[in-house]
Amino acid sequence: MLNLLLNLLLTIIGIIIGGTILLGGRRWLWVTLGIVAAAGTANLLAAFFISSNSSGWDIVVNRDWLLLVIALAAGLVGYVLGRNYLDTAVAVIGFIAGASAALWFIEIIYYIVAQVEGVPDSAAAWLIMVVLIAGGTLGLMLTRHFPEDALILISVYIGVDIIGQTLDLKPSGNLTALIMLSLGLVGMVVQYADYLRQLKSQTSFFGEIVTQSEVPMTEHFDL
């Protein structure tokens, strides 16, 4: 009974966290960085210390306290960084999200290079690290050149991923695809609408932008 209540509580918390990032990740940037840092670290730890197809949520479900503490510590560092260093926070969000997305390809790459081509595990591990760094670099470049669009897409991706892991949705199911796409669409519509409202509120009576920059990212902290 206690385990049932605990699992229910964890599910509710996971849905709340995922929903927060899904609908307001761009606006609440420091919260986004904290959750992205925690979730990204948890995903990496799960992939390396549990199994290649495990997710960060498996650390919570399995009560692996050491890995969980490390992930939460990374989330706390991300939260503090997001509150005090905006530009750095955006870059870190992009890198972590890109590396987390690259995890999707790890199992495929490992199978090809280690099982099919017969490459030693040590060499395969280095190749996987290169893929993770490449994914992180791509995410970093996107946030540097297209900050608002990238933040919206990344926060929607992270929010949907957290909700999917929390509900233990099967990746290959048709219902899962429908739910994920629907949640992603809702998140993008809500966040882009909020972004457009912010831009509109900064336009003067004569249609001129009265702010110093096109993107009011520093105002995300004035809530």
Task: Please state the CA-atom Rg, rounded to the nearest Å.
Answer: 19 Å
Shape: globular
Mean pLDDT equals 78
H/E element string?
A: HHHHHHHHH
Instruction: Count every helix, treating DSSP H or I runs of 4 or more residues as helices.
Output: 9
> Could you tell me the number of beta strands?
0
Task: Report the structural category.
Answer: mainly alpha
The major beta sheet can be summarized as: none
Distance between the termini: 41 Å
Strand content: under 5%
Helix fraction, binned, reads: over 70%
Low-confidence segments, given as residue ranges, are 209-216, 218-223
Explain the layout of strands and helices:
Layout: H1 2-24, H2 29-49, H3 56-61, H4 65-84, H5 86-102, H6 106-116, H7 121-145, H8 147-166, H9 174-201
Helix pairs in contact: 1-8, 2-4, 2-5, 4-5, 5-7, 5-8, 6-7, 7-8, 8-9
